[in-house]
Amino acid sequence: MSIRLSDFPTLPPKDLNKKEVVEKTKEMAKKIAELQYEMFKESKKSLLVIFQGMDSSGKDGATKNVFRYGSPSNIRAYSFKKPTDLEFAHDFLWRVHKLVPAQGEIVVFNRSHYEDILIQRVHGWIDEKRVDARINAINAFEKLLVEDNNTTILKFYMHISEERQKEKLQERIDVIEKNWKHNDGDWEERKHWTKYMECYEDAINRCNAIPWIIAPVDKRWYRNYFVAQKVLETLQSMTFDIPTLDRK
Q1: How many Cβ atoms are within 10 Å of 242's Cβ, its own excluded?
Q2: 73 confidence band (pLDDT: 50, 70, 90)
């Protein structure tokens, strides 16, 4: 059954207490850090967390809040920007593959290889034949990470409403402390909202061997809770075999 983003809420359930949720999120973040260290000690498994979403959907904020207690020695985060000339000279996965987690690591992608079937498709920089080829390559790439390197992949679509995105972009103009985030290009990309939604839905439905998690992000406090809960549940489902000395 195909996923339609319009069927998913962008707001939290109405019966939640914000203060309680924030406190629960903090506790989950601490547990995530503890389990991350167990993963590091075993060094046989890894976790790749992918955040994809429109501008101002909270990818940075989720990274900061969910992984705030973890050790930077074995949790890495990487933000994908416009490819460099060197990256453009290679296949589109070249710059991605070298950044995936080693065994024992958690790596967070703020944007990812999916940019290459989103922004390039929205603007018509690649044709549909190349889109199909890249989707096949992405599916094979993710299968390789899972089967060959024991990597678990969590793919979050940061589901923000069009109205809320406008508010967040305007905040970057109106609030002095947020001026540094302002980028005229974000407003230009917003003009292509409908096309972006079409491309996101297609990517979500065709790259679904590892199911996407549709995260409601209109309220930042619930976004953090939602993501932390999914990450924690994933880590808790793993068994870590910590090496010990043979004392016989």
Answers
A1: 8
A2: confident
